[in-house]
Design goal:
Layout: H1 4-13, E1 18-22, H2 26-39, E2 43-47, H3 49-55, H4 57-71, E3 75-82, H5 85-93, E4 98-101, H6 108-125, E5 130-135, E6 144-145, H7 162-172, E7 176-179, E8 187-188, H8 198-208, E9 212-214, H9 222-231, E10 233-238, H10 240-256, H11 263-285
Parallel strand pairs: 1-2, 1-10, 2-3, 3-4, 4-5, 5-7, 6-8, 9-10
The structure holds zinc ion.
Zinc ion binds at residues 81, 185, 215-216, 237.
């Protein structure tokens, strides 16, 4: 069985990217798993600290393992944005495939310190678990936004610099890096998000020497994604768009049949809407559309 590291290397060789989608319930898990199998590509399921609190850390691990085994399919589990070592340890101990230690809001030195500690813990516990580090602040919420959140790095001087990325990787020993390259978490209500600085992506990939992860993919154009993948992005995170698809489908379902009380009937259109969206994104990321 190939590891997540193998799949990432394979994607990079083929100039494609893996999709990373968050879940907050079993509806999301089935939608993503079925979409990945339909498209024929591996997939990463992400759960933030809040999503883990809601689902249960060990319970979401068991659910993802169970679905992956039943479908006979590579579905990996990532502890998305984790802000403390305690929560990193909890996810590593539960058998997650990947963890993200997010020190992007800390000083460079503090970020290096906590990230290095996360890497040391993960390595000692399980040599296969991948650790992702973050530099450059891109906002924190996967919500619909009125405006770009304050403090988000968007001008060339505040984007992640290739030199800083190189230093960060060598000081921490991370496996994956999430830079700030014009991407933002969440999705602007008015549409039109800033575009990705693909030249910066290519320069960071060259200096960092490890695969790059693009966060905050919701709201970016298809063309932007293709250019970013070509420049060196290996994993793309989509969360807000999936949450919107879920919310809209549940709303419609309740409006269409106000007397329906069976949760699985109310939720069915939401699973279908999320699956459709994930299929579209996976086809795009893997060069099949
Ligand atoms: Zn993110």
């Amino acid at each position: 069985m190939k590891t997540l590291r193998d799949h990432i290397a394979e994607a990079e060789n083929k100039h494609t990217a893996l999709g990373h989608f968050n879940i907050g319930n079993i509806e999301g898990l089935w939608a993503i798993a079925r979409a990945a199998k339909a498209v024929g590509v591996p997939v990463i399921i992400g759960v933030s600290e809040g999503e883990r609190d809601f689902l249960g850390v060990r319970q979401v691990r068991a659910l993802v393992t169970s679905v992956a085994e039943q479908l006979g399919y590579p579905i990996f589990l990532n502890a998305d944005h984790t802000y403390s070592l305690e929560k990193i340890k909890e996810a590593v101990d539960a058998g997650f495939d990947c963890v993200i230690i997010d020190g992007a809001k800390l000083s460079f030195e503090e970020n290096v310190k906590i990230t290095k500690e996360a890497v040391e813990y993960a390595r000692a516990k399980n040599p296969h678990v991948l650790v992702e580090g973050e530099i450059g602040y891109i906002g924190q919420s996967s919500q619909l936004l009125e405006t770009i959140p304050p403090g988000v790095a968007l001008d060339p001087a505040s984007l992640t610099s290739p030199e800083e990325a190189k230093k960060f990787v060598s000081l921490t020993g991370i496996d994956l890096l999430a830079p700030a390259v014009g991407n933002i978490h969440g999705m602007l209500k008015g549409g039109d998000e800033p575009s990705i600085d693909v030249k910066r992506v290519a320069a960071i990939r060259g200096e960092a020497g490890i695969p790059l992860v693009l966060h905050g993919g919701s709201g970016n154009s298809d063309e932007d994604f293709l250019k970013a993948i070509k420049a060196g992005i290996s994993i793309i995170h989509i969360n807000t768009e999936l949450r919107v698809a879920f919310r809209d489908a549940v709303k419609k379902s309740l409006q269409d049949d106000p007397d329906e009380v069976a949760p699985y009937k109310i939720m069915k259109p939401a699973v279908q809407a999320m699956q459709k969206l994930v299929e579209q994104k996976l086809k795009l990321f893997s060069g099949l559309s």
